[in-house]
Predict the structure.
Amino acid sequence: MYTIGTVAALAGVSPDTLRYYEKERLITPASKTAAGYRLYNNEAVRRIRFIKHAQHCGFTLSDIHELLTLKQTDSACCEDVRSLGIEKKLRIEHKLLALQAISCTLDELIQGCEGGEAVTDNCPILVALENSLAEAAR
């Protein structure tokens, strides 16, 4: 059994992260000492590493909770997990398209602005942003 500091070090996270994961019901201590200290087992270390890897793959803590629930559900199958993976990939692709559109808009704004010493009232980027705000308010 490990204390919160030890399991945090083994899993490469902070004790505060472990407390947060506990609050979000992603991990639970295996037991507590008579003094109330949380004790964790090797399964907790493995689960924390799973959570961190899933986060690196773009899954939110909510998604991870769902994955962990599926893993423990007898009626769940690999197709259920695959569906979550597909949904996540589609959301990421949608975000990428939105970011590419933003990048193109910024390219256009930057190209329209030569920089220099002009006062900001005449800055094409600021003018374009103000004009888009005025159009949105209509």
